[in-house]
Design goal:
Blueprint lengths: L1 E6 L4 H14 L3 E5 L20 E7 L2 E10 L4 H11 L3 E5 L3 H7 L18 H7 L5 H10 L7 H18 L5 H19 L5 E6 L12 H14 L14 E6 L2 H4 L12 H9 L4 H15 L6 H17 L7 H11 L5 H13 L14 H12 L9 E6 L3 H15 L5 E4 L9 E6 L5 H8 L6 H15 L3 H13 L6 H14 L3 H17 L8 H21 L5 H23 L3 H15 L6 H13 L6 H8 L6 H11 L5 H5 L1 H13 L2 H16 L3 H12 L15 H15 L3 H4 L1
Parallel strand pairs: 1-6, 2-5, 2-6
Antiparallel strand pairs: 3-4, 3-7, 8-10, 9-10
Helix pairs in contact: 1-2, 1-10, 4-5, 7-8, 10-14, 11-12, 11-14, 12-13, 16-18, 18-19, 19-20, 19-21, 20-22, 21-22, 21-23, 22-24, 23-24, 23-25, 24-25, 25-26, 25-27, 27-30
Amino acid sequence: MVTLLGIRHHGPGSARSVRAALEKLRPDCVLVEGPPEADALLPLFADPEAIPPLALLIYLPDNPQYAIFYPFAEFSPEWQAIRYALANKITVRFMDLEQRHLLVAHRPDPEQSPTPVFPSSDPFQILAQAAGYSDSERWWERFIEQRRTTEGIFSGILELMSALRAEAESLGQNEPQNLVREAAMRNIIRAAQVEGYENIAVVCGAWHAPALTHLDTDQADETLLADFLRSIVPDRRAGSSTGQPAVSLIPWTYDRLARRSGYGAGIDSPGWYEHLWQSESNIVEGWMVKVAQQMRAEGLEVSPAHAIEGTRLAETLAALRDLPLPGLPEVEEAIRAVFCFGDDVPLRLMYEKLIVGQRMGKVPLAAPTVPLQRDLFAAQRRTRLEPSATPQTLDLDLRKPLLLERSRLLHRLTLLGIPWGRLQSASGGKGTFHEIWHIEWKPEFAVNIIEASMWGNTLLEAATNKVQDEAGRATELPAITRLVEVALLADLPEVIPPLLERTQSLAASSTDLSHLMDALPPLINISRYGNVRQTDTALVRHIVDELITRVCIGLPAACSALNEDAAQKMFARIRAINRGIDLIEGMGNGDHTQAWLRTLTTLATLSAGHGLIRGLASRLLYDAHADDETIIRMSLALSPGAPAADAAAWLQGFLHSGGQALIHDPALWQLLDEWVLSLSEASFITILPILRRTFSAFSDPERRQIGELARNAGSRLFSTSEMKLDPVRGEKALALVNVILGATNDEER
């Protein structure tokens, strides 16, 4: 006897019905729609350490990017069927077309389902529209998922699907790949019968159920499968079609489950479905309590009365719509009205954390995986940094061994193309002793880990080998210095000495000033890490000293006669080096600062220099309080004889870091105001885009203050004429100041 249990993938109502049907049937074999290659992993589903959501990962070992995910949640009917069979020592297997044929036929998107819940034409839409529903998912949930009784549900589904398939076939809407997959399923059912199983339960997508009722089509099925295999055109990049794919079990998240990704497509509200599965009664009341707790955690005022009234409203809406119990639309409407007073903004706060949910599964240690993944597991346990689907911010004090080890782990993963964390700039002036990371684990990192395993079996080995490979292919100084910085941050001691030697060699032989300038910022950063990362950076400091000297000597000549594109690139390089010089000055090296300021002075007065570069140099000197000639330089740059475009470029360079200089220095503002007033209409229209781009980069408060200056132009507030002082009144004020400061008569003199 073969009993067909047609289900909706990830449907809690279907999962409950399947569980009840299996309890009643007591089968001797359970066949579950899924990849046959994963049969060996089925015992892991009963492991106490296996916490859903999880996903089977099917991939080609030689090309891990050829992969498909098969996700399972606690409320997935397939998960419940497998767990039931394993708990009762019943034979359980997957049934479907072997994925190796599909993996080599084309390169699938791992996020794309190999089969939707229903065919793309969705004949359920006809039923939904006839019943007054906007979409078939809503209809299915109303009549199937929300049923409180399971009696006769699967026979009803089978009858309904048979009618729909007949209609779809008459319209030519049945997908050919579905027919091939169903032929493979029938073969597996027949094989189970041959083995002597007499009470077989088949758990499959509802659409497939009618196709599995007739098992006397073995000859036709073999022909269909043979034709399909002959029609496959292997993707040559995937390798031989005879290769067996590898299978692994990986953590999944509700966020990914909600993206209609992976086998069986996705669902819009995993968090809500989990609540439906876990709550046999008081479903709405429990949900309203969760909403109230979450809104309180967000700092919103919510009382028990809100939960009570929200429950009443949801139940009333369900009664008005002739529903057996409130669904998510009724619950959302009640929350919007009672909790949010019609405002959607607080409701959107609830969507990600409650309706979708932030749960992440956990894989048992016995799950097969590559050695690199096992080393990562060990590193995560050692650093007490467990993966989580919830975004987190880490403030790592690198003077503490545990936090330094976390930093090394995150840097090694980033180097290997596994961006678990993204490094942010340090805050609060914490310098090199602190790193700020934003971390969020994503299921697709499982594929990245498999791809990275080609470099080695441990994180240290893999990161070292990858850096060595990149260093072997790098021919320019900036690329090598970037690798030096990466190797230092990731703590790869084996590659740092040879990289430093190569850096010194390239620095000595390089004649391209742009390469020297691009190499300086990472080298300056490296020279700052020293003590905190227990690394000898004396050689780096020597290289930095040499490069700064060469840059200061060669920069004026390199900045002569630049076109617009070259000036923009040089502009960025000069800014980067200026930031580096500031860092070196903080380390007590003032010689470089003085040499750099002399170079900037030369650039600011370079007659053949681009206006953008001259303006930048003038601003850097102004900010460093290096001289008092800024007004003179600005007067020359904005003089009537200067081309308007060159003057605008100078202004763009001078104001690159903001408008505070204009706001707090009336003389600079007056020069700018007079220059703009002196422009002809044609000149003003020509330079307007540059001015607009320059001023649009200012902050809102700066633009507001500059607007006030423009409105008050010409008032005495901005006059540069000498102010007349009254010495008698000044003496009276001075006496009071002396009292406040406690100054003596001698100090006053």
